Amino acid sequence: MKRYGEHRIPGRLFVVEGIDGSGKSTQLMLLHQWLKAEGYGVVFSEWNSSPLVKDTTKRGKKKQLLTPATFSLIHATDFADRTERNIIPLLKAGAVVLCDRYIYTAFARDASRGMDPEWIRELYGFAVKPTVAFYFRVPLETAMKRISDARAGFKFYEAGMDLGLSDDPDESFRLFQGRILEEYEKMIPEFSLTVIDATLPIETQQQEMRLMVLAKLTQAKQLRVAP
Amino acid sequence: MKESYGVRLPGLNLDDLVGKLIVLEGTDGVGRSTQIRLLKEWLEQQGHAVLDTGLTRSGLVGKGIKRAKEGHTLGRITLSLFYATDFADRLENEIVPALRAGFVVLTDRYIYSLMARSMVRGLDPMWVRNIHRFAPKPDAIFYLRIGVDELIPRAVFTRGFDYWESGMDLYSAEDMYDSFRKYQTALLDQFDRLAEEFHFNVIDARPEPRVIFEQLKAGIDRILMPPTGRPTLTAPEEEPEPAVEEMALEEASEERRRRA
Question: Which one of A68, A121, B151, B211 counts the least CB within 10 Å of its CB?
Answer without folding.
Answer: B211
